[in-house]
Design a protein that fits this description.
It is built from 13 helices and 12 strands. By secondary structure, the protein is of the alpha/beta class. It folds into 2 domains: 224 residues, Aminopeptidase, CATH 3.40.630.10; 104 residues, no CATH class. The strands form 3 sheets. An 8-stranded mixed sheet has the order 1-3-2-5-10-6-8-7, with helices on both faces. Strands 4-9 form a two-stranded antiparallel ribbon. A two-stranded antiparallel ribbon has the order 11-12. Helix 1 packs parallel to helix 13. The protein binds zinc ion. The site of zinc ion has 4 residues, from loops.
Length: 385
């Protein structure tokens, strides 16, 4: 137990002692983005370690169970079996991806703590920092950190801060073993990446691009800052796969983005103060994104991929949730935001053919990635048994 959040939820970590004291230590961070389900993969990993000897189980593995329990609580009641259920707005427990300013895992200090802006010291950030420091400052072999994420509608990829030959050589095999497609084009992912190490493996942009502030980083950038000899891997496993390239021109996608943006802004003007709810603040923090994405799509012959659709879905969902929280409507169907959201869900489903990734496949993708990063092809054989 590492403390409690602002809303009194526990912040917890689990350590599974390895059988080989000389083996490098492994750090796994779950739930950095509370809208992305990584808990299943975390528990599958713990179950594997608890029932196996040798191989991965030779390493001591430290798992931070949830980086944002308060954000996760706002996602607790939605499902993941369809885009409609995944992005479902509700006055409690619907889809929620907090504004970056409210994401604890994005505020780890890359500078002296007192230089970080006030308000950035969320309790979950402090607990995560303490947890990481305990491992990163230890003696012995430098640790390897895995930060688990789900990249919405798309393909599997990884982000590493340094060359990692075993992972680079076998990452595509790990994705294949989990039955997931491998991402090949970084510009379609909506992430800040600078160069490709190997198929599906990229190097991250510096903090001022990733978090918008050179003084604050995610667990990956923080681990590298605190312990330069550490290795780090962000694992991105899709929540849904698309049936193929989008059957949509760039200008067509741009028009959709601008239409939805205009409709959202119109709705937003009729609503009570958007800063009153986490949903309203999340919407506001991304209000500039749809126009920005539209100008990028305008320059493409074909739409880049599902990321602009996901951004629309996040925005229509968050604004609808804000409306449901602040307005007393006899039925949610009477909300114009809800109608707009429903239209975007149907459009996104039609053009992507999105199908959910089974939780077991997503969990195996993570286990296989950790296995190849630590033990190369042999690791892959071990976890496939
Ligand atoms: Zn994420």
């Amino acid at each position: 137990m590492l403390g409690h959040t602002e809303e009194s939820r526990p912040l917890e970590a689990v350590t599974i002692q390895g059988t080989d004291e000389g083996a490098s230590q492994v750090v796994v961070v779950l739930g950095g983005h509370p809208d992305e389900d990584t808990s299943w993969a975390g528990f599958r990993l713990l179950q594997y370690l608890a029932t196996t000897t040798g191989g991965l189980a030779a390493h001591t593995v430290h798992v931070f169970l949830d980086s944002d329990p308060d954000g996760a609580a706002l996602n607790a009641e939605r499902g993941a079996e369809s885009l409609r259920r995944y992005y479902e707005p509700m006055n409690r427990g619907g889809y929620h991806r907090p504004a970056v300013a409210e994401q604890p895992a994005m505020h780890l200090p890359l500078t002296a703590r007192e230089d970080i802006p006030a308000g950035a010291d969320m309790k979950a950030t402090l607990a995560l920092k303490q947890f990481l420091d305990d491992v990163l400052d230890g003696d012995g072999q430098p640790p390897i950190l895995f930060d688990l994420h789900r990249c919405g509608i798309g393909k599997m990829y990884a982000i590493t801060t340094e060359a990692q030959p075993p992972l680079e050589r076998h990452f595509a095999l790990a994705a294949a073993q989990a039955g997931l497609p491998l991402a090949r084009e970084s510009w379609a992912l909506g992430d800040h990446l600078v160069s490709e190490w190997a198929p599906g493996v990229w190097k991250p942009a510096p903090a001022e691009v990733c978090t918008g502030d050179a003084r604050m980083g995610n667990p990956q950038l923080y681990a590298k800052h605190r312990c330069p000899r550490a290795r780090t891997v962000i694992v991105e496993v899709p929540q849904f796969t698309a049936s193929g390239p989008l059957p949509l021109s760039g200008p067509h996608m741009a028009r959709q983005l601008r239409n939805v943006d205009a409709a959202l802004r119109l709705c937003a003007r009729t609503l009570d103060d958007l800063t009153l709810t986490p949903h309203g603040r999340a919407y506001l923090s991304r209000e500039h994104m749809l126009q920005h994405l539209a100008s990028e799509e305008d320059r493409r012959e074909w739409a880049s991929g599902p990321f602009p659709l996901q951004t629309m879905l996040r925005q229509t969902s968050e604004l609808t949730s804000h409306a449901l929280c602040t307005r007393n409507l006899p039925s949610r169907n009477m909300s114009p935001e809800w109608t707009l959201h429903g239209r975007v869900v149907r459009f996104a489903q039609a053009v992507t053919g999105a199908r959910p990734v089974a939780p077991a496949a997503a969990a195996h993708a993570v286990l296989a990635t950790i296995a190849v990063a630590l033990r190369g092809e042999q690791g892959l054989r071990e976890v496939s048994r």
